[in-house]
Specification:
The chain is mainly α and about 120 residues long. About 60% of the residues lie in helices and about 5% in strands. It has three helices and two strands. β1 and β2 form a beta hairpin. α1 packs antiparallel against α3.
Length: about 120
């Protein structure tokens, strides 16, 4: 019976750490953190989260309103466009422009939030 070789851990010597340079943008592990910038980043993250939740809530409300309008207003079916009832066309195609409008509004507002953050960060 052959004996299995004993496991050996192979490691490299850890380099000595010098003074870490301060960075802008992505924080590297072990780099110094500016407290003011950390506060600004947390505020930006909260602002972006509020914007995202508000955008989703607004979109859901508009979709629910459109769906209820189609379901509760039977007169919409009297209008015929290209041989199809208007309610069908609304259900099939009205949501895509809504998605585009909410997406454009979100992107513009998120970019404005980030510009404000950069202005605050660079002012210090």
């Amino acid at each position: 019976m052959t004996e299995t070789p004993k496991r050996v851990r192979v490691t490299a010597h850890a380099p000595t750490r010098g003074a870490a340079p301060s960075t802008r943008g992505i924080a590297l592990p072990g780099s110094p953190v500016d407290e003011a910038e950390a506060v600004f980043v947390r505020a930006l993250m909260r602002s972006q989260l509020r914007l995202a939740l508000g955008t989703v809530a607004g979109f859901v409300l508009v979709v629910i309103a459109l769906t209820l309008a189609v379901a509760l207003i039977p007169e919409i079916d009297r209008f015929v466009v290209w041989g199809l009832p208007l309610s069908w066309l609304l259900q099939a195609y009205a949501f895509y422009p809504l998605i585009v409008v909410f997406a454009v509004l979100y992107v513009r507002t998120a970019a404005r939030n980030e510009r404000r953050f950069r202005a605050l960060r660079d002012r210090e």
